[in-house]
Structure formats: C-alpha cells, structure tokens
# Entry
Amino acid sequence: MQRIITSTALVFAGALLFTGCATSSNDGGTAQGGDDCEVVRVAVRDISNGAQNAILTSTEQAALLEKLDGYSERVDELDEQAADDSDLAAALDTLQEKIEAAETYAATLPTTATEDFEADADAQAAATGDIQTAAVAVTEVCSAE
# Structure
C-alpha cells in the first residue's frame, strides 16, 4: 500500500510540475507559431497525464493496452502536424516510444481483473516517469523555438 501511495504522489507531483511548464508564457515567436505550439503543449500534457493515469489505475492488460494505443494514435497525429519542425518531431517520436514501451508494463497485468492483484510499483514509476520526461522534453522544444 505504501508503494502505491508513493508512486501516486510522485506522478501527481510530476503532473503539477509539467502543468507549470506547459502553461508558462513564451514571449518570443516560435517556428510553429505561438498558437500552434500552445495546441501541441496542451495536447501533449493531456496525453501524458492520461497515459500516466491509465498506467496507475489499470488492473487489466487489455484495457491498458487499448488506452495506450489511443494515446499513441494521438501522438501520431501531432507528429504528422509537426513534420516541418524536425526538433519537435523528434521529441514527439521519443514520447511515442515511451508510450509504446509502457506496453511492457501492461504485459505484467492480468488478462482479467482480479481483486488480489498488486501492481509492480517500480515498473509503474518507471513507465510513468519516462512518459513524463518525454512530455516535458516536447514542451521544452516547443517553448525554445
């Protein structure tokens, strides 16, 4: 129980940090344009938070894989829109890789929900932390332009 609380606290702290980064102002222009970059930041924040929450709350393999696939599709759509910006596209590719890597964690979940299942807190923390780091990198690339 303590590991779950610790993992949850770390994810929420990371989400708060990321939210602060995602909403910071950017006084300079960007190659994507301020509005386009804001759209990317908001979408990536939503994808990151959703994927992390799915990892932390899912107790069944198929349900998590379905959610991760949906987030992966959303990153693909953003990546297509960012094709003109190689740095942003590379950062989105990294986020995509981390979401796909979370499927390794999903493979540890039971195929049917069980009451006595206890998730691997270290694996959860690693998967959510990797996604969080990749999402922050996308925001930084977008903000730096």
About this structure: Helices lie at 2-22, 34-57, 61-81, 86-106, 121-144.
